[in-house]
Amino acid sequence: MKIHHQPLQALIRELFLANQSSETEADLIAQHLVTSNLVGHESHGVIRAPIYIEWLKSEMVFANRSLEIIHDQDALALVDGRMGYGHALGKQVVDMGVEKCRRHGAAAIALRNSGHLGRIGHWAEIAADAGCVSLHFVNSTGRGMMVVPAGGVEPRLSVNPVTMGVPLPGHPHIVLDIAAAATAEGKLKVARNKGEKVPDNWIVDGHGNPTNDPEQFYGPPKGAILPTGGHKGYGLCFMVEMLAGLLTGGGCSKPGVTRLEQGMLSVFIDPSQLPLDQFLSEESARYIAWVKSARTAAPDGEIFVPGEIEYRRRRQQMNEGIQLDETTWMQLTEAARNNGLSEELISAAIV
Fold first, then answer.
1. For the segment 103-148, what is each residue's pLDDT rounded down to a tens digit?
2. 43 CB contacts (<8 Å, ≥6 apart)?
3. Average pLDDT of the residues in 224-246
4. Mean pLDDT computed over 304-325
5. pLDDT at 170
6. pTM for the structure as a whole
7. Domains, the chain, ranges and CATH?
């Protein structure tokens, strides 16, 4: 089914307003989740809204939390999210990073104890809107420990997103937004809701055997996610665990953690403070054109640069509506009704 993005955002906003969030926080969460759907990252979109409300009621996350400044020195800051919604905390981190970056040319913000930070590409896009290059490394302290090390069959690492964003004049932002694991766990939720299989080399079942069935991942016994690209992805995953776990003080993956605590190390660079203005513009345009000019494997194929598919999908779905599966829509409408939202608000979203 297809859903209008604006009424859907209004529905999500009202859902969080009905559950303690301020107007500002509800707006940030709704915008983040719906934008994730618009760009094609369903795994971090509205499918998560009912889950977040459950976490709130279980005191696994808390509404209206702002950053606690642990250490602030020129271009560096260490901050604690106090288990607030990551969608609000991430915006605060980017705002702080951009402000420091403009004063010092570069900055690094280390965030610990955040609720789920959502689609990390969202933070790179906001930084790029402000003219800043950014890099983001994210881990979970243990609740998100789903990834096996290369050669192993038991989880020891988080999915660990790696995101880089570069603003370019006259061109959509270049944004690489990937998991160091073969897939984000949210993509398995989406596949399960749709009744679909997943590609080879994504997951193993609870006995360590390869499987394409997301139900086998959820068990029992619980399965695991493979690192992307074997030992290379494992190495990347391990280093992200170091950066986001150690340098934030939040810690790396460990057993016994009962709530999703995330850490994020974010680095910001202001390219306008380098004497490269003309070079950046001309060289980026030349290189993008050169890469896209490569002969394609398929006769009608096209080569995309990072972030281009998301940019196109967002424009398309803003015009045509967001494609949601029936199960996700049912879960969302059930959460809306259980929290007293009107049928008019729900039905307004359907194309």
1. 999 999 999 999 999 999 999 999 999 999 999 999 999 999 999 9
2. 36, 184, 185, 186, 187, 189, 190
3. 96
4. 96
5. 82
6. 0.95
7. 1-64+321-351 (1.10.1530.10), 65-181+230-320 (3.30.1370.60), 182-226 (3.30.60.50)
pLDDT digits over 151-184, tens only?
A: 999 999 999 999 999 999 888 999 999 999 999 8
Measuring CA to CA, how many Å separate 28 from each of 32, 92, 95, 204, 276?
6, 11, 13, 35, 34
Please tell me the predicted confidence (pLDDT) of residue 169: 81
Among candidate residues 118, 130, 30, the one with its CA nearest the CA of residue 81: 118
Q: With bands split at pLDDT 50, 70 and 90, how would you rate the model's confidence at 53?
A: very high
Interatomic CA distance for residues 76 and 88, integer angstroms:
20
Task: Tell me the average pLDDT of the chain.
Answer: 96
C-alpha 269/C-alpha 98 separation (Å) is: 8
